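Fold it.
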Amino acid sequence: MTHYDRITTLVALAGSSSSSIPLGWVIGAFVTVVLIAGCICILRNRDISRKRILVFFKKDERDEFDIDAFIRNHGSLSPKRYHYSDLKKMTNSFKDQIGKGGYGTVYKGKLTNGLVVAVKVLSESKGNGEDFINEVASIGSTSHVNIVTLVGFCYEGEKRALIYDYMPNGSLDKFIHYKQGSSDESCRLEWKTLSDIAVGIARGLEYLHRGCNTRILHFDIKPQNILLDKDFCPKISDFGLAKLCMMKESIVSMLGTRGTAGYIAPEVFSRNFGGVSHKSDVYSYGMLVLEMVGARKNLDSEVSHTSEMFPHYIYKDIELEKNEIIFGEITEEAESKIARKMVLISLGCIQTLPSDRPSMSKVVEMLEGPLHYVPIPPKPLLFSEEESAPMSQPSETG
């Protein structure tokens, strides 16, 4: 019975038995019912408003709910969660800084069990923490010798950090970005080591694309995101831009551009070149290997991260077998074969159309097979003959 039904009933009773019920009682009861109904409406509206206010002020707490949901859903598979006070203890109050970048700062630390770790403290929190959760979810579900191990993470409001196994040799870029004749030349790696690193990275990507229950597309393969352990075994790291998709999905939907200039596949910044897929990582891998063999070393540093600036002259030198221009001084035939194979495979990986690029499984097969099984791939469609003149100038003056 509604409030209005009750009021109508009282009025009817008052009319039918006015002789037995005083009129003042009836009026008092009527006023009481009206007041109660009004209070109920006010309290109900206040409750709705209160909920709206709480939602408004708790918008910034939704990240915490996301992390908690992740831990519940992944259970024992999720990395251990640490408090910020734990980070201070394991890093001796952030005493030993071993790296710094736009993402934040990396410190060397040690867990209570003696394990040496690298603690990446993110510099600022952007959005709703999607990238952070993405990285924890991506790496937390992997287990491969060529994927960095995520030991744990910290999430306390704006304080966010990732805890990895410590890699004594740092990132790959330190060993491929050096000036000849400088003290940095001691970082120069042997061709066999470079080849082993290329194979390891390829195996890591093959695992992400085919070995996981959920396919993981990295979208940011570059030298800075390849870590090297004490034996120079490569570990793919930094999954902040990664995208998880079903194994059956060949094309993924994606808003905006992901990656670093110079390593981004054409289809990622323009869908006119095709759909975004695991072949986008293949392109980035090809650019990375070209950089490893020194094929970009003769370019001006200001344009060295623009992929369209250099492949034409590489093709020209490959066809003329000018190995000394591309690879530097190589005296042994075995090293020359390694270098040439790496370049040919990488040129196949940077084909303009995704369908023309090999899978990472095929890349591993070619890297581990003989050189004569690796064909000279066609020149990518992006590079025209008109570009050849300005491209060859840096290699002649460098």
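The radius of gyration is 32 Å.
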